[in-house]
Amino acid sequence: MITSGLPASPGRPTDDAATAWALAARGGDADAVDHFVRALHRDVIRYVAHLGADPQAVDDLTQDTFLRALGSLHRFEGRSSARTWLLAIARRAVADSHRHTAARPRTADVSDWQLSVERAQPRGLPGFDDGIALLDLLDLLPDERREAFVLTQLLGLPYAEAAALGDCPVGTVRSRVARARTTLVALVTEAERTGPVVRRRRPD
User: In angstroms, rounded to a whole number, what is the distance separating the alpha carbons of residues 21 and 96?
Assistant: First the structure.
């Protein structure tokens, strides 16, 4: 039975609400497990996709992330938000996947990749019309700037938590986000003038 003090619905939960679900799930509340997974599933799939995971493995890596999280939920004490804790697990799942496939790279199907990430792509962002795909723009950013931007601007993680997740100072995250914004603004301006973004080498 769900404890009366917990949120009644995951919806788009605050970090406190998601953490409350995680702590209740740790205590054996089966309904809380379901709410915890549903509440954070979209954030995990976005993050995994934007980390540059194997395009055809985004869903599998998301599932792996939750399996790892549920398997170690008994160790979660709420010292960080459940979302930050879960995204750290997702980051390790993607890193493990990269290591596992490094010796046997697979050719990704571009259509499948675009479909997978389009499901996780936010809608209605100002400055992005139908001809300018956020996915294409983000893919042009260096990995570290893209990760910082996704964590703080798309997933709404506080800078301090993004810094802890990326194992770097808060100032470094702020710098990466600022530089990512500058690049994205330039790319949006260029795309609005010349048409949809064409993938090219990421800037240094």
Answer: 27
